[in-house]
Amino acid sequence: MAVREVLRAHIAAQGNAGVETPGEGGHAASSADQAATIAAGRASQELGIRRAEFELAVHLGLIAVVGAPGGGRPRVHEAEIARLREQPGFPDALVERVRTVGTAQGAALLDIAPARFTRLVRAGCVSPVTFYLNRYRAVVWLYLADELAAFAAREPELLAGRTPPGMRTMLESGVDRRARNWRSQRIDRLLDRTTDPWARTAVQASALDPVQLAEVMDDPYERAYLVRVRPEPVFGRPGSMAAREAMAELMLADDPDEILWRRVNLTLELDAAREDRPAPRPGDDGEALTAPHARPARTARTGARPRPVHQAPAAELATPTPTPTPPARSGAPRPAAMGRTTGRGLLARLGWRGRGAG
């Protein structure tokens, strides 16, 4: 603590004297940024919120964190703490934004029966933000109270009266979108935290089991590279073995149409990653290949990086959407490493031929 204060006072004195060159000023600011950070545990204490609330706020992007030197635990700038403290209604407003509720509390918040609440979330009207395991090791989904309130204001007709026919048909067929929507939001938030093409590819690949992944990526060195560069949530995986096993199971897409969309998104990100740099192989210069290239964004040629393909929310569907059937192929498919693929070539690389609806 004393060292940090000395560094801060020294940098402030230099800044007040105005004797730094522009280059030196930038370096000093960087040193100040490193010095003026605090650990996550202390940050939650200074904000007056519980550790679980703090971690959820980071996950939602409400609190900015920085990586510690050497890959340590994330830290928070003191300036970020000051920014949050200056917001209106602090800290109650921040706590309310990360408040989560289960089925019973959520139903009470919407003033509906728990059974109706369960039907709504199964249909995908509201997405869970996290989960925990109860004493029977069953998954208990939690929802943001803010999102429930927004849903009630947006779709009041779904809180009373008869269930819409399309939604009723879905529910009667056994549809449950909770895990799927949780996966989608988690993947989107991880994608928002990285611009490295291979890391983005790894995020998309995390929703496919090893067999599905190998059908899209037949190169074992590329698959091994994904394991090395895959970003994780800021505060890692759940601590208990049971929770880690539940997380691993919930991360995998299970419906045929979701698997297809995940394979499409993976293929698009993989094309961008291969254009950026090849995956390292034995004997390669590891430093040259494993680090992201320091170069301008590739917007001149493509306009933007590939965007994930999203489907409409389940609640908006009047009838179940059939799985797309690929057209018949003629001739051999292009090798996986050749350029971007469209149309028939993309479907060939997805390995979806002959799967039909499942």
Helix content: 40-55%
> Major sheet, described briefly?
3 strands, antiparallel
Number of domains as seen in the coordinates:
3
State which percent range the strand residues make up: 5-15%
> What distance lies between the first and last C-alpha atoms, to the nearest angstrom?
60 Å
Report Rg: 24 Å
Q: Structural class, from secondary structure content?
A: mainly alpha
Q: Spans with pLDDT under 50 lasting ≥5 residues?
A: 1-32, 293-307, 311-344, 353-358
> How are strands sequenced across the largest beta sheet?
3-5-4
Task: Please give the count of helices.
Answer: 19
Features:
358 residues; mainly alpha; Multidrug-efflux Transporter Regulator, Chain: A, Domain 2; 3 domains; three-stranded antiparallel sheet; two-stranded antiparallel ribbon; 5 strands; 5% strand; DUF6397; DUF6397 family protein
Task: Give a short synopsis of this structure.
This is DUF6397 family protein. With 358 residues, the chain is mainly α. 52% of the residues lie in helices and 5% in strands.
Describe the structure.
Residues 290-320, 328-351 have a biased composition (Low complexity). InterPro entries: DUF6397 (IPR045652). This protein is mainly alpha-helical. The protein folds into 3 domains: 36-98, Multidrug-efflux Transporter Regulator, Chain: A, Domain 2 (Orthogonal Bundle), CATH 1.10.1660.10; 99-176, Multidrug-efflux Transporter Regulator, Chain: A, Domain 2 (Orthogonal Bundle); 179-350, no CATH class. It contains 19 helices and 5 strands. A hairpin with a 5-residue loop joins strand 4 and strand 5. The N and C termini lie far apart (60 Å). 25% of the residues are buried. Mean pLDDT is 78; it is low at 1-32, 293-307, 311-344 and 353-358.
